[in-house]
Please model this.
Amino acid sequence: MSKAPHLTFDLDTPGLGRGHLVVPAGADCGELSLPVFSLNKGEGPRLLVTGGNHGNELEGPIVAWRIIKWLPEAQTCGRVIVLPVLNPLGVQAWSRNTPLDGLNLNRVFPGRADGSVTQRIADAVSRVLLPMADTVFDLHSFGPTWDFPPAATTHPIADPDLMARTVRMAEGFKLPLTLVWQHNDTAGMFDITAQHQGKVFVCTEFGGGTVGADSLAIYEAGVRNALIALGLVEGKAEYPTFRQQRSGQTLETRPSDELKSPAAGIFEPRRSVLDEVKQGDLIGILHSIDSLSAGSIDIRAPEASIVLAIASGAHVEVNKVVALIARPLK
Amino acid sequence: MSKAPHLTFDLDTPGLGRGHLVVPAGADCGELSLPVFSLNKGEGPRLLVTGGNHGNELEGPIVAWRIIKWLPEAQTCGRVIVLPVLNPLGVQAWSRNTPLDGLNLNRVFPGRADGSVTQRIADAVSRVLLPMADTVFDLHSFGPTWDFPPAATTHPIADPDLMARTVRMAEGFKLPLTLVWQHNDTAGMFDITAQHQGKVFVCTEFGGGTVGADSLAIYEAGVRNALIALGLVEGKAEYPTFRQQRSGQTLETRPSDELKSPAAGIFEPRRSVLDEVKQGDLIGILHSIDSLSAGSIDIRAPEASIVLAIASGAHVEVNKVVALIARPLK
Model:
């Protein structure tokens, strides 16, 4: 009989707690011990904050450690549980998926106790931590090869009341972008498991590209704003300054908003994220590396929209997504 | 007998020329044809511009294509040869080294006619193109996992006259940073081969991280400034705006200026490039992913200096370079 996933400390004890979430050993690897922080100040909102779901999105763990530093001084009520690194195997390999079993942790929820290591992590989180929270912030980012604005996101949710509460919570981060993201590959996401249990789940997308000091300050401010919005922390929520602006907007994007490379070549981005574009405006250029006279192909905006994400200049194959557009949420 | 490397068109014909530099086939792969642009306006400076030396530094090829677009209108004298992609095999694989033979093109100059493909590329450039130029700009960048300011760089050169002319040329880019970079791994660099022939060679380091539209405009302005400084193009050279500033400074850095990770963990950058720091100032933090109570390790400035480069937040092993510092050139 395999051991059940468990915590090494009691979260119901008042005050500060530190310990581990133990993910049992399996055929593929030994037991994992994931560091967990908890601060129990009695009655009030019950929040779970997770990071490092994808191993090449390190903004989440860093912001989680920053929050842990000042929460003991700042939190006035309720309970906050923080698990900075959900997938240490992915983080150590700087890999989106877990190298050991090739699985994407954010596609195997609610997990399996008798599965491979990625499925066992999901199972431990789903069974041990998720029941202890009413609200979940899973701290993602857009990855190292994209430019993306600091954002709090959700997928569309069938229950209109939960959808409204989720969008309101996401807007509480006061990041430059709140995004309703419609896409077709949502089976097994952490969001879905939490939402089936009626919980408010916000997935942040903390920008893209390198993880730098200026950006981290914006992301930390976003989580602090959300803690204030929940009533866990006192203070004044403020829009952080992103590229000389202090503002937020709520947008939606769909699968048809992906712009793809018309051929193989080097993609040259010509726009920045959150730029407003008119139909036909130049978004980027695709250059052939085989011939100067074969010329280059312009990639243009299919409609009036806002640039949501733009790929880094890089060599791409044909039919690869190089930009995403979005529009104001109706 | 192997075919010799050659051009498919005559660079001495006045006016615009487009064709290929042919790198002969070898045991490891067939013939390569590298697109080449040439604009011959008679007497004057003779410049060679190359990009894509390292396959994951795509700023160079993109800026090279941008220059090719407006040079026919702008160039008033002399000859400019542009080879946007030196290493198409590296570019297609988004790899610093050539996947086929594992070699770093910028460590095999002057190359070998009977060598592996990377050595044959170096040989073709050294024998066919280099003799046609007095000045070379090789457009590099610092790679996707670093923050780095837009810079024109050189290594120290033994000949004081060539050193002075090289630094002056690098300063002619009017980028935020001109850098004299002392390091010990220079054997086989393109610079060395060109400098042995008395040529002025500037290696740009066009920033780090994602390749975005705003940054590309700065790099393009830098090359335009350098063309004006050479007298190839008329116009007014101007410092481009980088992070709200328009200025340039000349710094030097040495091997002892590398700051390394004291343990394995996630590196959190706490400073941005070109920040001035005092001795003991916090540069970054290294976080253990195994334990919250093991705490974190501060990485501090060993002396008053300027932050030259800082690594992206990422999981690092022990003793990995996470930051570089520099100081004003004496």
User: Anything to note?
Assistant: The helical segments of chain A are 59-74, 88-92, 117-129, 160-171, 190-196, 213-230. Residues 14 and 322 of chain A are 49 Å apart (CA to CA). The mean pLDDT of chain A is 96.
